């Protein structure tokens, strides 16, 4: 039986559910939190940072953003932070606003909420001729959703103050995807939908090549992570279907795919996994790239 064309997941209301299922079953949040609590404080400790008390936070991921703000406050307790939040999903933005409203220790932060993509944010910034600079910008789960990653990196890097830092957290091979999603997308991109994802070329290697070519100093940290994909192997499991949607980035993957394609995807997924305590754990890792401003 032939597969029907896939609908790109990021264009649908099912995306937030699939993303949540993925985050609930992977260690990305944990390894990112470990990086923020153990490594980021030393990066932020530079006393030359935050002379104007201004910070841009790109993408709202809830707890991750709050953890970064907490570390900023610990290292620079007297600084008032002007926090530009950029998030195109109204649901995600509202979720973050609710989290912030419940946090009593964020009185040092002024939030500006931008319900827009990074591309729209860049256009907004240029049209308004805004000249203020940032001391710290973080881009988590951002490059996965841009048409031109090189232009996006260049724009946000241009916003850095002297001694400023740009933190990019990116999947092992391509954007936020991690290794399992990359393997699946590359193996079955024609069957799934060649247009399923706007950014196909960005990777840690591409970013490093870009930075080296421009003489921009940076440092890379590799963060080990895994994804519990066990539910994917139980046909009809609701969580498993959400995970498969996210891993293929196709809405209703099991309904779209032929039985043969679904089995092939599962075979590839198992091939990059290990079985531990009865759970199928897909091996993965992500990269944290800390980019310095050009003084």
Automatic annotation (TrEMBL):
Q: Which Pfam families match?
A: Methyltransf_23
Name the InterPro entries on file: SAM-dependent_MTases_sf (IPR029063)
- The name this protein carries in UniProt is Histamine N-methyltransferase
